[in-house]
Amino acid sequence: MFKGIIGLLAGICLAAPPALAQQAEPQLIRAAVLRVDDPGLPPISRLDIPPEDDGFAGARLAIEDNDTTGRFMGQDFEAEEVTATPETAAAEMDRILGEGVAFVVVLADDATTLALADQAGERAMIFNAAARGDNLRGADCRANTVHVAPSQAMMADALAQFLMWKNWPRWFLIEGSHPQDKALADAFRRSATKFGAKIVEERLYEDTGGARRTDSGHVQVQKQMPVFTQRAAEHDVIVAADEADIFAAYLPYQTWDARPVTGSAGLVPRSWHPAMEAWGGTQFQNRFEKLANRRMREADYQTWLALRMIGEAATRTQSADPAVLKEFMLSDQFDVAGFKGQKLTLRDWDHQLRQPILLTTGNLTASVSPQDQYLHQTSQLDTLGIDRPETECQF
């Protein structure tokens, strides 16, 4: 009998390796990060020139994080890094879709993001990790797109809440002359109405072209900005709408009246800041800096968060099936941690990721919105941006 048992166990052991080997084969979950670089003007400050791995470094950290859990779940994650220009973006998207990639993180402007989402259709889920246009969450919303990047309305509301908490309700709004500047200015106007601020005066800063970074640049600014801002109506704060990065950085310390500058310069709303330390931020920053040998930028954070959403869905569903992961991410059961003190969830009416917004200076996070006094019947985070009753999105 003993010999029979030994023989039986030996037979099981001999039969086990093929089955175990089959189970050990990890399920591959593929994604791509498509960054569309616009060869426009350089930033005003050379310190703001994006690094070559902008966004991609965040993707690499996310894949490391996903694989840390994936190793125990029999899952393997990868994210192809693709750079394109506005002219080559469609071809690169065709290639990515042709390879069967079901998740594409897009770092592009509003128009390109919308075009790529339409191109992908039902073949892939698009994660918008850069474009902030409210139209992408409104009249131009797409069912296949998740917005990881905060909207302009969220940014404007975050700043407005803080300014009202400071009892600075009188705003001097300076708007740039580019279409994206107008869109941001419209968001500030909406926020002023929403939270009870008053825009006492508006001025348009025309972009006349010419050199932006020259040896005499600061000399010209020192003469021009005080003249441009003089004789404004009595105001508490300047709110700059300068998405094109033409003039706002020159406003601090150069205005006619001694007033704080906010919006596109001075006190700036951001999705992430390299000085953020709360809620485990220090450990997160350290890991990124060790990996990338630089500080984390917003594009890195938003790309990291998009890929972490995929990893979280795979872990929770224990599946690598893109259809299963998409369904779970869009369900009310989904949430993801983002080092912002609370779980981040998706709005079902426009697929915008709810998240706190950091209000930052050059070296610090000055505050985080939503501010405590602004409450909501569903989620306090829905005090930022377009709420369900206001949405123009129809999937």
Note the topology.
Blueprint (H helix, E strand, L loop, with lengths): L1 H23 L2 E10 L19 H18 L1 E10 L4 H10 L4 E5 L2 H11 L4 E4 L16 E3 L4 H14 L4 E7 L2 H17 L2 E8 L11 H13 L7 E5 L19 E3 L4 E3 L10 H12 L5 H20 L4 H8 L6 E2 L5 E2 L12 E4 L4 E5 L26
Parallel strand pairs: 1-2, 1-3, 3-4, 4-5, 6-7, 6-8, 8-9
Antiparallel strand pairs: 10-13, 11-12, 13-14
Written overview of the protein:
With about 400 residues, this protein is an alpha/beta fold. It has two domains: about 25-150 and about 275-355, Rossmann fold, CATH 3.40.50; about 155-270, Rossmann fold (3-Layer(aba) Sandwich), CATH 3.40.50.2300. It contains ten helices and 14 strands. It has helices at about 1-25, 55-75, 90-100, 110-120, 150-165, 180-195, 215-230, 280-290, 300-315, 320-330, and strands at about 25-35, 75-85, 105, 125-130, 145, 170-175, 200-205, 235-240, 260-265, 270, 335, 345, 355-360, 365-370. Helix 2 runs parallel beside helix 9. It is globular, with a radius of gyration of 24 Å. Mean pLDDT is about 90; it is low at about 1-20. This is ABC transporter substrate-binding protein. Keywords: Amino-acid transport, Signal, Transport. InterPro entries: ABC_transptr_sub-bd_PQQ (IPR022478), BCAA_transport (IPR051010), Leu-bd (IPR028081).
